[in-house]
Every structure is written in structure tokens, then in C-alpha cells.
Predict the structure.
Amino acid sequence: MKKIKIWDILIYVLSAELAGALSALIAGGNFGAYYETLSKPPLAPPAWLFPVVWAVLYAVMGISAYLINESGSEQRRPALILYIVQLFANLLWSPVFFGLRSSGGAVAVVIAMLVLVVCMIAAFAKIHRCAALLNIPYLVWTAFAAYLTIGFCLFN
């Protein structure tokens, strides 16, 4: 069994969390106030739930990327590139939706995210089954985010 490198895991987790923080910073914050003004689709959760869920998902994404990096697989580089690209798409959603207030643009971003997350999970699965499975909640939440984003686009 390989030795777990705690500092390396922390770097991966913090990097993912920083992507989320950067997204919020670029978007300008005060999401709750804008969110409350929107007509919401059915099942839309309260505003406070989003940062909680995203914080957990970013941490899990970081752990999964660490597992891929530590795998030693020759396929890890393309898999980690997919990870970075999907993380960048993720970073764009809040600035587009909240910063630009473009629900149509946010729909395009979230659909791209969904495709990229599926591709990332498929790439991770070829290398490390657990790393892929760790991202299933992220895929489900991204699909839910797509539903909500399309709903916001239609209702507002």
C-alpha cells in the first residue's frame, strides 16, 4: 500500500477550494440577494445550501485528483488535464450567472461542465476506480445545477 502524502492531498483540496473561491470573487459575491429575486424552478434549494455543497464537492474533487496523480499511470496526465479543464468551466459558472446575470450563458457553461465531468469520470475510471466514484456526487449535483440553470433561464 502506498503511503498517503497528507500535504499533497491538502494542496489538491485547497487548489480546488481556491477555484471555487476565485469564482465567487470574480462573480462579485452577494449571491443570496440576487438568488432570492429569481423565480425558481421546483426543487430549488435555499441559497445557504450551495456553498456548503460546493465546499464538500471541491474537497472530494481534490482528493480524487490526488489519487489520479499518485497512480503513476501513463494516462494520468490527460486525465488531470480534463480535471483542470472541467474545474475551469466550473469556475466560469458563477461569474456568468451571478456576475453577468446571463442565465443563457450559464446554461451553456453548465452543459459544458456536465460533458466535461462525464469525460473526466470516464478518464479517472480507467486509472483509479475510487477516484472516479468519488466524483459521482459531483456529477449528480452538476446535473441538478443544469436543471436549475435551465429553470432559471426559462422562468426569468
